Amino acid sequence: MDPRQLKYFVEVSNERHFTRAARRLNVVQSGSLTSIKTPEEQSGALLFLRTTRRVMLTPVGRAFLAEARRAVAAAADARRVVAEMQELRRGRLSIGSIQGLAPCLTCRSCVTAFHNAFPDIQIRLVAGDTASLIQGV
Hints:
The chain is α+β, with helices and mostly antiparallel strands.
């Protein structure tokens, strides 16, 4: 099952109606219906009881819904982390210097200013010999 199918499943579960769920997801109803049938076919389990008026979760569907919601949330978190790293809002910065020069190169006001501008970026100061610093790159 792909993330799109899980998202459709969650939305249909929330709306209890294929057309309303499709409208909320900006897709055609046949697309959301196909996305629901695929997980049912793959698992061999009926996730919804369908009537002409609405859709109801089966016991298996309710159990699957809890996991699908977690998976959809995890996918959203993963996209957010990637976006934050691309926008330099999150990550790690290592500053290396040769042993004796470390105090000179780690200007406290520069590090503080950087940290204030980018609070979710971890700053690591490393002192070492040339070979170990190159190896750390």
